[in-house]
Amino acid sequence: MGRRPATWHEVRSASFLVQELALKGRFLRENGALPLIAPTLVIMAVFTVLPLIEGFRLSLTNASLINKGAAFIGFENYKQLYADPNFWLAFVHSLILTVVAVGLQLILGTILALALKQNVPGIKFFRSIIMASWVIPVAATAVMFTFMVEPGYGYYNIILNAVGIKVNTFWFGSLQLAFPLIIILHLWRNVPFYGIAFLAAMQAIPDSQYEAAEIDGAGPLRSFFTVTVPGIRNMVIVMVTIHVLWTFNNFDMVYLTTGGGPVFATEVLPVYLYQQAWTSYATGYASAIGTIMFILLMIYFIIYIRIYQRQED
Amino acid sequence: MMTKRHRKATRITLTYVILIVAFLFFVLPMLWITYSSFRSQGAILSGSIVSSAKEYTFDNYKLVLSIADFPIYFWNSLRIGLMVTAAAMVLSILGAYGLSRYPLRGKNAYIMGVFSTQMFPIVLLLIPIYNIVFSIGLFNTSVGIMLGQLMLVLPFAVWMLKGYFDNMPKEIEDSARIDGCNLFQTLWRIVLPISAPGIMVAAFYSFVVSWGDFLVVSVISQSLKTATLTLALQRLSSSLQLRWGQVAAATVLTIVPTILMFSFVQTRLVEGLTSGAVKS
């Protein structure tokens, strides 16, 4: 079969093809990372972005885990939330928990880092074991602390009794002690992480800066504020930012110790949402709580970006 | 001269005071529960710190391992943890390597985008995720749980590995490319061996997050087929409220794998977790 000359039509479509391939080649050359990151992006989109949007949609319905049909009810759930005293209690607790826990973590983490930085005998051992509390499951932490605050035979109560303070109550069951104990749990888990992270940042500060400060006549306190603090500033920002998100969104520390009790004394938003969704089956109502949580975090994020940008200028 | 020596003594004393308090607060609770797991119920409830020799026992471990379906929970945790780690490593090595070595228009926006998902309340996301997992037939399966846990792990894993790859010299890869290696050969033969320490940290992080997860499992798991140790611990500590010896033994068995792995990566863990922040 002899080769017939290509028709104009064929020439045009072939040139289109070549052009398209060239475009695609150029697109890939300029965006070579895309095919490699795409699987991650798809998973993140399907399991975070879509659910977030779907969660907002559900919050406008009376969806329930047991009834299949859900009706659009506008902002009815939000009106109910506004009138729900337990929601406001959880709201206030979440804010206090986040601010107090992260604030204390920052202070104690800095103190711990300063101690870990000293080259005293045994320090290597300390640096290596101190972060163990961060890697164990929160469920184990919850059991450990429940055990430790048992009246009579708990570790905390044994120590306190030994120094003459008689606290023979179960702390998690006490209206006064349960909430502070939740904060202590957050400290227990996260302060070593702060300590080690700040230590890493402090070790990156060149000695010459401290020597210069000393020549200028700065004492330990002044060189801390003029050399150390600026040196670890970026690390502080990173740690505080992620811990505000993690603490505010944290669910299992409260759920696995007190479940929000006694009498709502430790109720926080993630736990209240979980109970609404999976115990009361009020999916729509729970989604409204979640949407409010997201809006609060967005506000935090926007304020944070603003402040950050202003400082950069 | 005197004041300088004086100051040094104060500093060392202060350091040890802080370290001892830190030890009592952070480390001793773990030793205490380990110690208690070898004591009889009576010895624990006595409130004394030391008891007579015959009250130390392995019974708690024997009981937990024989009656409480504990080995099944353990295997479920291990299987899901390994699946999450493997999937997270494949995805994040490819993604992080791509972001580190190849161009992408609006790259920072992608990175910010992936990271900003950390801001989303996971408890909220789980309601639709439950529906998604249910509708694709993965409810109460390991794969369903793995998919749910991947979104907890991926942003950090990608970020850690990208930081690691950014600090790695490109020259060897370029010469491998010239020798005719394609992307996957370069990754497999050159990049993975060199970056093994960084990958170990990211893998450890993925495993620990999966191993410690309670929230996702509690929603997607429905039976013993997929229930993990964290669920078991919760059930054990609420049902056997006063059997503290057994609860302690179960807790120790849950902690030990993570602590063991931690001891292998501990110094590198900090570098990995904080490399991005120290560098900037």
| Biggest interface, CB < 8 A | A-B, 98 and 98 residues
Tell me the fraction of residues in β-strands of chain A, as a range.
under 5%
Based on CA inertia axes, which overall geometry of chain B fits? globular
Count of all domains of chain A: 1
Distance between the termini of chain B: 39 Å
CATH topology of the largest domain in chain B: MetI-like fold
Quaternary organisation: heterodimer
What does this molecule look like?
The complex is a heterodimer of chains A (313) and B (280). Chain A is mainly alpha-helical and 313 residues long. Chain A has one domain: MetI-like fold. Chain A has 14 helices and no strands. Chain A has helices at residues 8-30, 34-59, 76-82, 85-117, 123-129, 132-135, 138-148, 155-162, 178-203, 207-215, 220-249, 252-255, 269-278, 283-312. Chain A is flat, with a radius of gyration of 28 Å. Chain A starts with 7 loop residues before the first helix and ends with a helix. Chain B is mainly α. Chain B folds into two domains: 2-55; 59-279, MetI-like fold (Orthogonal Bundle). Chain B is 79% helix and 0% strand. In chain B, helix 4 packs parallel to helix 7 and helix 7 (142-166) runs parallel beside helix 13 (244-279). Chain B is globular and about 70 Å long. The two termini of chain B are 39 Å apart. In chain B, 45% of the residues are buried. The model of chain B has no long low-confidence stretch (mean pLDDT 88). The chains are: A mainly alpha (313), B mainly alpha (280). The interface between A and B is large, with 98 and 98 residues.
Overview in brief:
The complex is a heterodimer of chains A (about 325) and B (about 280). With about 325 residues, chain A is mainly alpha-helical.
Write the layout of secondary structure elements.
The complex is a heterodimer of chains A (313) and B (280).
Chain A lengths: L7 H23 L3 H26 L16 H7 L2 H33 L5 H7 L2 H4 L2 H11 L6 H8 L15 H26 L3 H9 L4 H30 L2 H4 L13 H10 L4 H30 L1
Helix pairs in contact in A: 2-14, 3-14, 4-9, 4-11, 9-11, 10-11, 13-14
Chain B lengths: L1 H35 L4 H5 L13 H9 L2 H32 L5 H10 L5 H14 L6 H25 L4 H8 L4 H12 L1 H17 L2 H6 L8 H11 L4 H36 L1
